[in-house]
Amino acid sequence: MHKTQSFPVGLVAGLVVCLFAAPGFAGDLDAGVSGKGRAGTPTTESSSSGCPQNADGTFCWMSPDIGEAWASGYTGSGVSVTVVDDFMVQGLVDADLGRGTQRLRHGEWVAESAGMVAPGANMFKHDFSDESSIRLQDGLNVINVSYSVTQPLSQHPLEQFVDAPRVGTAVVTQAAGNDRIAIGAPKEGDVDELAVGLIGAPSAIFVGALDHNGTSGNKAGLARYSNYAGSNPEVQNQFLTVGVEGDKTGLYGTSYAAPVISGYAAILGSKFTSATPTQVTNQLLDTARTDTLVNYNPATYGRGEASLSRALAPVSIR
Which residues are catalytic? Predict the structure, then answer.
């Protein structure tokens, strides 16, 4: 069988990580990962972390919008988030998302991030070398993909990534990548075939990283490593950005931007319980902010910086 070359797109201490996928299956998320389908507002936990927890239960790297959503009872309950990533091969990395320093693999950090943003969601993990299909759950499904694929998708065991957002059966969030190039552009002769396949898919979102969570008084810029939307209007239309505050956590890269948006999608799904994946996707894209960004232009930032508060504001969405 052809061995697929996949590249997780998180940076740790500023370094790009890459690997060859190894076969195997990792099973469901264990007790070490947040997000167990709990309802209600998360409780405050004490820790000796260098990333202190806020009074509303959020952590230092999170947007204040998350605490407001939790206070309103929207934590992702009833939504399933599947993180497809490396849970077996890549080396362990020390970082701190607010519960003290932990040593986890790339996929575990990605899953931890999504689960902390949406602690009420049902969380699953799927090793990207596993050739079995991802089983969609009842209710809204969100699939997080924080890596790229350089082989034709027909040779990749999980080509369903493209099918799901094209037919609208799941929200798919893909990390934009860390090569400082436009989505879909070649790098040293290689193209991210997964990204190319997702262009134009109605419920797919590309996620770039900002250097911090922006505000109108403290605008954010695109992180120095992040890929950007580029000149393709289709890509611009489905590109969002969110802050990755690696100076607080030790985790840099668009790998850790994508699970924030996955968490946002789950939170929206817990309010708009009858919304389709495409409706949730459009709500996130249509409510993005541009006033929080330095020199906003769609070729850099796509639709702008994701705004959970704006996305949650309506009584219903269409």
Answer: 85, 106, 255
